Amino acid sequence: MRSMSSRARAVAGLGVLSTAMTVGGTAAAQQPAPPTTAPNAPVAATATVKASSSLRVTRTRLNVRAGRTALVQGTLRPGRAGRAITLERRSGKGWATIDKARTTRTGRFTLKVKRRSVDTATVRVRFAGDGTAKPSQRRVGRLNVYRPALASWYGPGLFGNKLGCGGTLNAGTVGVAHKSLPCGTRVVLRKGSRIVRTRVIDRGPYVGAREFDLTQATKQRLGFGSTGTVLVAH
């Protein structure tokens, strides 16, 4: 057999080189492109800007007899349906929820509470906030739940006498006498539209079925007569 000529060997070599370049180019083309960012790079979060909220109280009924319904109505801005509003009562341990309501689409709400026993405490309305609005709160006033009690009054002829809880009775002394409530107990008295908030400062009365004895100054502030029924919360 004749040996391959120099020209044939050269052509064969070019074919091998061309095949290698083609195979190498294809392999390089099939390799994935390197990532443009590091795999553990943090993703920037989009912050939610919350709107300020405000509570407006439009109507209250906070002075009621035991067993009747107290009422607080108002509006939360911005208006949106379904937002939770709470009515909260202040106590020695902080604030306790006594009713809950949801706003209408215009932001209106109505809160109601029925207390079967006497009570007196500061109340507020509160919106805890949500995904689009900040929290807000507003004090409403004092919730007074009353019961009727027989009362009388005293003063003239007794001014200068010592009080059962300490101090001296005079024409300007505001307070009430009670047979058993601890001295200093806070009571709220109501007669018609007048309300007097005071304390137990003396002992008595000891006549008939009367439960409270009002000092002369208390009687005058309350617009009370001589003997009769007052509403009391304590």
Description of the molecule:
By secondary structure, the protein is mainly beta. The chain folds into 2 domains: 92 residues, Immunoglobulin-like (Sandwich), CATH 2.60.40.10; 86 residues, RlpA-like domain (Barwin-like endoglucanases), CATH 2.40.40.10. The protein is 14% helix and 42% strand. The chain contains 2 helices and 13 strands, in the order αββββββββββββαβ. The strands form 2 sheets. A 6-stranded mixed β-barrel has the order 8-12-9-11-10-13.
Summarize the model shown.
This protein has 234 residues and is mainly beta.
Derived structural class? mainly beta
List low-pLDDT spans: 16-29
Taken as a percent bin, the fraction of beta residues is 35-45%
CATH superfamily of the largest domain: Immunoglobulins
Order of helices and strands: HEEEEEEEEEEEEHE
- CATH class of the largest domain equals Mainly Beta
Q: Please give the radius of gyration in angstroms.
A: 41 Å
With strands numbered from the N-terminus, the spatial order across the biggest sheet is 8-12-9-11-10-13
